[in-house]
Amino acid sequence: MRFNTVIIGGGLAGLTAGITLQKAGRSTAIISTGQNALYFFSGSFESLEEAPQRITDLFTEAGIGLHYNPGVRLMPMGTFRKAVLSLEDISLFPEPKIGNKALIVSFTGYHDFFCSFLAEGLEKQGMQCRVKLLNLPELEQLEKSPSEMRSVQIARTMDRIWETVVREIRILLRDEDTVILPQVFGLKDTSVPSRIRQGVPAQVVFTGTLPPSVPGVRTQMLLKRRYELLGGTYLMGDEATGAHVHNKVVHSVVTQNLGNHFLEADNFILATGGFFSKGLKSNPFEISEPVFDLDVEQAEDRSDWYNPEFMREQPYMKYGVATDPALHALSGGEPYKNLFAIGSILGETRPDLGTGGGLALRSALAAVDEILKPDEE
Ligand SMILES: Cc1cc2nc3c(=O)[nH]c(=O)nc-3n(C[C@H](O)[C@H](O)[C@H](O)COP(=O)(O)OP(=O)(O)OC[C@H]3O[C@@H](n4cnc5c(N)ncnc54)[C@H](O)[C@@H]3O)c2cc1C
């Protein structure tokens, strides 16, 4: 099988590159082993201090609403964190104060949303809080098995019964100016969070649950759908295990499921994520990149990899694949001609491109621009 570009890794970076290349008329395939960091996504993109038009257009065309409103967001423990570009159901506030009285609502049997910690955190900041659990017969089936009572399963039900939730909240509401709900709405029907906001006569704030993150899973599903609608080939559940390479040119990639049917292309993009997604691996002697054995920037002495004070910044989190200025991946200090590394596999080796979601988006667009650049004769 031959494509213009083969992308390894189908998270935020890989999908952004794939969508942009498909839109430009290039044929692409994405190989992805499975879950990615979006399943843990807070809903706010790190290190995007402005809202680049290309990024907002890409998301809007995929059916994902964004808003840009520099401020802070409410965290699950009642604290606040700086946030800028976010999904539209994430509330952003100019300062760490969201109101005077809050009604915090969750569901009987649901343990992945910590109402009491949230209330405690907000009360420390002078907000009065009241916690209420809704006992919904529609969730009884899920309640029978604690492993089913997770945010994504609940969100599937909520897409159908959100009007009941609004009705119950209206009955419960006294003089609270704010209602806080777990982020378990709008998994498939993306209009649900705004319809809840319209139906409740108080400010509604959705806040984080334990993973999987419903806003993140929704983002992944919508980006993947957009990519496939544009004609992209998404090879879900496959893993790139090696490559055919000659003179710093990659010719094809070998995958677990396709066996001898190699994926050939003019360009290759490596978007396999950091340690979390196994884009980077470590053993007691070195940190390595498993598909192409690329150069990884790291301290030589293992004792410098980490800070023994666990809660401190950890040096290994900054390590990543080495690239040239155009994001060509390096091996033995030399750049590959047609292999680009993007997203969190870069660690913090490219501070010019930011961190987290900002890095994934910026590096994907930069690599695509390089691929689309007319050939210099
Ligand atoms: C727990 C967690 C929470 C985060 N929360 C936020 C947040 O709220 N906001 C923010 O801005 N940033 C967040 N980040 C940073 C995050 O890394 C980026 O935002 C971004 O989602 C990374 O995207 P990526 O595509 O580079 O990598 P990933 O999302 O890690 O995707 C890499 C994909 O490649 C696949 N893969 C790996 N190896 C292979 C292979 N050999 N063959 C095929 N596929 C392979 C993996 O299975 C995975 O699907 C978070 C990171 C983590 C780890």
In short:
This protein has helices at residues 12-23, 53-61, 115-124, 140-143, 151-172, 192-199, 214-229, 356-372, and strands spanning 2-8, 28-32, 66-74, 80-87, 101-107, 128-134, 178-182, 203-207, 233-236, 240-246, 249-255, 263-270, 281-282, 287-288, 296-297, 320-321, 328-331, 334-341. It is of the alpha/beta class.
List the main descriptive attributes of the protein structure presented here:
2 domains, eight-stranded mixed sheet, binds flavin-adenine dinucleotide, globular, Rossmann fold, alpha/beta, 377 residues, 26% helix
Task: Give the SSE map.
Blueprint: E1 2-8, H1 12-23, E2 28-32, H2 53-61, E3 66-74, E4 80-87, E5 101-107, H3 115-124, E6 128-134, H4 140-143, H5 151-172, E7 178-182, H6 192-199, E8 203-207, H7 214-229, E9 233-236, E10 240-246, E11 249-255, E12 263-270, E13 281-282, E14 287-288, E15 296-297, E16 320-321, E17 328-331, E18 334-341, H8 356-372
Parallel strand pairs: 1-2, 1-12, 2-9, 5-6, 5-7, 7-8, 12-18
Antiparallel strand pairs: 3-4, 10-11, 11-12, 13-14, 15-16, 17-18
Helix pairs in contact: 1-7, 1-8
Describe this structure in words.
The protein is an alpha/beta fold and 377 residues long. Helix content is 26%, strand content 26%. It is built from 8 helices and 18 strands. The strands form 5 sheets. Strands 1, 2, 9, 10, 11, 12, 17 and 18 form an 8-stranded mixed β-sheet that branches. Strand 10 and strand 11 (249-255) form a beta hairpin. Helix 1 (12-23) packs parallel to helix 7 and helix 1 runs parallel beside helix 8 (356-372). The longest helix has 22 residues, at 151-172. The protein is globular. The mean pLDDT is 94. The chain binds flavin-adenine dinucleotide. The site of flavin-adenine dinucleotide has 36 residues, from helix 1, strand 2 and helix 8. Flavin-adenine dinucleotide binds next to helix 1, strand 2 and helix 8.
